[in-house]
Amino acid sequence: MRDMNQQRSSNLIASNICENLKAEHQQRCSVFFNIFAIMTQKRGMKMKRILAGLISLSVLATGHEAEAASCKINVSYNKQFYKIEGLPIANKQYGMAKSYHPGANKTMIRSYQKMRAAALKKGIVLDVVGTPGAYGYRSYAVQKQLYNDYINLYGFSYASKISAKPGTSEHQLGLAMDIRDGTNYGTLNTAFEYTAASKFIRENGQRYGFIVRYLKGKEAITGFMYEPWHIRYVGVTHATRIKKDNITLEEYLGIAGRRKLSAGQYQVNGALCKYKR
Question: What is the CATH number of domain 70-275?
């Protein structure tokens, strides 16, 4: 009797899961539910296994498995920098040649100018921090000096959380900028998050191909502290997907927590995979 009551209870829960789903998921949920019901009835699964089945059912039914979809990605290296699925990558694992000196990416500059113009129409002033006209670009030498200055000020451990080691900075890629609110010329700190400029970037940056690169709560993945002012150009398509999923570039490409990948093709689990089907 006890087993029957447990089974009825679990079936009721599973049924409710299906009913509460969006229409496009209900049919798939029903299929899993029917299979699950047969398994529990004929195999006499204990409550512990029933609950495990319910958890699996809820994950499958809501479509969350797509977030961990598996696919093959291509990694390339041209002796200057790495690309993953065509996207230039720079982080603590993937570096660039000391001689790589591209300057700021022209497509990024045009996109930024459009974004800045759109912000101005709302009375918001976006300013790029750094050398005027450089649009965030830093050479290897400049990054080295900056990095060493931080080490002298704060020590190696903290400096490594707030500044990239020379040869691993997105600024050297020519695809990143540090932005401040031009109406108050504030310094680069997390208080920027509460400015109109930051809000505009968070809500609209993806429309112009930009993402906030180092997200709050993702420090263990990116290796850097939360930087609401640091934006990275990845193009509108990628930026829209990354913004929608509220993830880092590493999570999107499926390289979060993995060792460095040399040039070649690899099987990964990343958010990008659900768009490659």
Answer: 3.30.1380.10
